[in-house]
Amino acid sequence: MNTQFAIFVFLALATLIGAASVALSRNIFWSAMGLLSCLVGVGGLYVMLSADFVAITQLLVYIGGVLVLILFAIMLTSQIQEISVSNRSVGLVGGYLIFFVVSTLLSFVALWAPWRLTSKEPVANTTVALGDGLLGTWLLPFEIASVLLVATLVGAIVIARKEVKSDS
Length: 168
Known about the structure:
The chain is an all-alpha fold. Helices cover 71% and strands 0% of the residues. It contains six helices and no strands. Helix 2 runs antiparallel to helix 3.
């Protein structure tokens, strides 16, 4: 067995098992740990595809930002165990139907698609080209998007904050 294939199988299994544990776990902490496994597996698959910038972005944004935020929200919410759901089986039929349709479609594509094998090309460094593009040609749209995101975040904070009433 090829080492690269073994690493791929390990990362794919980590991603699939993590995704399944997110969907099937009743404990929100273990769902977050499954999400961590899934995101690390996807980041590893990006590394295997020579998409180094996307892999580092996956690591920084999703694992370093979103998942840590979710974990803080879990840890700081004290009454999360007191929530009771009255009917847990509402989405089971729809979920099973969607799973059946998607898995059938993906199996059909995987088995019957004409996969072309090509020669292996050398690994190219994509970070330099992306950095030149973001700091050159696409600098203004990149900065406008960042200002728009900050304005959205400030607007969400203003809308979500509670008004403090003064008694004096």
